[in-house]
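Hi V.,

Quick status before I head out on leave. The structure for the redesign project is tokenized and pasted below; the design run finished overnight.
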């Protein structure tokens, strides 16, 4: 039996149409609550919203259509597995709330760097080491892609050993590396205690690291001006070049 639209659903549809015509807010910005369990065969505004979240987070590769098919169910299932939820591929209230929160967090990180104030600084490793305490969270922005993700310092004495904070942060970092972990050095800005610090990262999970539900096995390295490799205590010249490059890219 077909479900009849109530006045609330009709007003919501009209609002979305008007916003799209005027080029205003995107669909994900709307505060929508689920009215029923979404699963294969469902369609409508709520399905499209779920797909917008999945697409924005990188779980869904095809653009939203408003129809809950096999691809949407598979994307939901992957999201559920990565967030320790019952992985049935169906979107109930719990999955929806966690999915929406993940999307909003990712969007806020984008806006954080777009609204950046001030300039980037070349701060020596000795000062960074004293000011960035273990377990303290910072935001790392890749200066070529513009993607930002949160990290936590796990340790490190010649440079920072860090781990992404959440599953979403891990996925953003992986997207920076074109979905393949790599030792490639990349110029980044680290936002720490209100300042942007020039730095360089590699994208290869290695060594020990606290997973903490971030789906990142091990840790990765963040280098700053004058930081060195742990094993030999030597400068990594490629990292140092990227630290300098970060200053140039930041001002563009």
């Amino acid at each position: 039996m077909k479900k009849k639209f109530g006045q609330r659903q009709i007003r919501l549809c009209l609002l979305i149409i008007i916003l799209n015509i005027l080029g205003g807010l995107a669909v994900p910005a709307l505060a929508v609550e689920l009215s029923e369990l979404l699963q294969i065969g469902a369609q409508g505004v709520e399905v499209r919203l779920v797909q917008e979240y999945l697409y924005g987070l990188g779980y869904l590769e095809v653009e939203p259509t408003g129809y809950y098919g096999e691809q949407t169910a598979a994307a939901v299932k992957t999201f559920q597995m990565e967030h320790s939820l019952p992985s049935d591929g169906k979107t109930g209230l719990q999955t929806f709330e966690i999915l929406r929160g993940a999307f909003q967090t990712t969007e806020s990180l984008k806006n954080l760097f777009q609204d950046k104030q001030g300039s980037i600084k070349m701060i020596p490793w000795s000062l960074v080491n004293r000011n960035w305490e273990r377990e303290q969270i910072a935001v790392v922005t890749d200066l070529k892609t513009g993607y930002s993700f949160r990290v936590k310092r796990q340790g490190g004495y010649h440079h920072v050993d860090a781990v992404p904070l959440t599953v979403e942060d891990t996925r953003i970092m992986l997207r920076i590396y074109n979905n393949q972990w790599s030792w490639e050095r990349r110029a980044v800005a680290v936002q720490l205690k209100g300042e942007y610090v020039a730095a360089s990262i590699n994208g290869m999970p290695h060594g020990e690291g606290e997973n903490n539900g971030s789906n990142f096995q091990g840790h990765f390295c963040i280098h700053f001006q004058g930081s060195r490799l742990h094993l030999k205590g030597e400068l990594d010249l490629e990292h140092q070049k990227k630290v300098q490059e970060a200053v140039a890219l930041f001002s563009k």
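Above is the designed sequence. Confidence is low (pLDDT under 50) at residues 1-5, 14-30.

G. will cover questions while I'm gone.

Best,
W.
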